[in-house]
Amino acid sequence: MKKEEVDKLITESLSKEDAEFYNQFEEEDVFESWFGVYKGKFAWIAIIQSIVIIAAVSVAVYCGYHFFTSESTTDLIRYGALMFLGLLFTSFLKLWLWMQMVKNSIVREMKRVEFQVAVLMEKLSEK
To answer: Which of 32, 59, 99, 110 is the most buried (most CB within 10 A)?
Structure first.
C-alpha cells in the first residue's frame, strides 16, 4: 500500500476537525522547507547564519577578484587561500541549513505519527 493510499484512508476515517489538523503535517516543497528554518526556536541562529554566509561569499568574491588580477606569487597564495576558506565556510553553513531543513521534516513526520497513534488509541478506548 502506498503512502498516498494510507493517508487517504486515515483522512477518511477522521472527523472534519481532525482531518484539518492532520493535513497541517503535509510534506512541504523546497521553498516552504527553506523558509521554515527561519521560524521557531532557532530562527535567530538561521538569520545570523545567513548574514555570515553573505559576508563569507563577499570575502570569497573579493579575494577571487584579487586572485585573478594580482601579479605577485605571495598575493596569489594569500588571496587564493582566503577565497578557498570563504567558500569552505559558506559550504559548511549551507550544510547546517540543509540539516535543519531535514530535521524539521523529521519532526513533522513524527508529529503525524503521534497524531495517528493518538487517534488510534482514542478509537480503541471507545470500543
So the answer is: 59
